[in-house]
Amino acid sequence: PGMDGVDLCARLRARPDYAATPILMITAMTEKTYVDQAFRAGANDYVTKPIDRNEIAARMGMVRSLVAERARAGNLRRQLDGLAPHAGQALRFEDPILLEDAGGAIALSSMENYLLRLGNLRLFGSTGRGFHVENAALVFSQTDGLEFADILSEVAIAIQEHLGDGKALLTYAGQGDFCAVQSRVGQPDDSELGILINDSIAQRLAPFTGSQVALPVVRVGRPQSSRFLPFDDPTSLIYRAIEDARSPEKVPNGFLDKHFGGQRRAG
Questions:
Q1: What is the four-CA torsion angle of 228, 230, 236, 238, rounded to 10 degrees?
Q2: For 85, which DSSP code?
Q3: For residue 219, what are the β-bridge partners?
Q4: Cα angle vertex 105, ends 266, 50, to 5°?
Q5: Element (H, E) at 25
Q6: Is 16 exposed, middle or buried (0-12, 13-18, 19+ CB in 10 A)?
Q7: 232-245 CB burial, b ≥16 within 10 A, e <16
Q8: What pTM does this model have?
Q9: Cys-Cys link to 130, which of 24, 230, 232, 245 (CB 3.0-4.6 A)?
Q10: pLDDT digit string, tens, across residues 16-59
């Protein structure tokens, strides 16, 4: 009583036992504001009434996939806590893992569902921006699965700290690639964003990684706009943003000069 679906979703997500439980919202609200609020509160998918049986069946397929992924992640964590040997082999470098310890980060499938639900026309006022950890493969090779996920969570938190309006949706797509989707209004200054994020990563991780694990270095891409074509796949915004962030010229040279004397770490 006294709560709507978004409030309930947020309260469930705040409980550790429900941090990664798939949540499919069914509602009559179709405005972008409600869709944004639902995904920011932690919804994995959003279906509007009237309900189509075939659509619900397809969406429940997504739920089953998320349940399977959550079970795999739980097994990984138990293994890495010492209950089974060779635990680090359970996580692959390309896996788009859900960063449960990074508040506000959502699963890649949830980000795709969000973009598909809105479509290109309603995304016209939003942009996607990619973030690429250029030495992610090296960091992965120096850590076990849980340590790598923890480092990625710290990277995600550092990115979120500097995205401006606090309403951006952030996802991890695997291979050291992140994507944030946010309003065109209130975006941070491109010229210093990479330096600020990498400074924050250094402050968060340098005391803990030591000499055994490389400090992640992030490239920041340029904002990418949704294509104004109804038939174009809205989820392409994620991958165009990531591709842009992977461009070599996006390395934050000011950060490298400050922390590594201009010498980039191997990887």
A1: 70
A2: S
A3: 132
A4: 140
A5: strand 24-27
A6: exposed
A7: eebbbbbbbbbebb
A8: 0.78
A9: 245
A10: 888 878 899 998 888 888 898 999 888 988 888 888 888 888 88
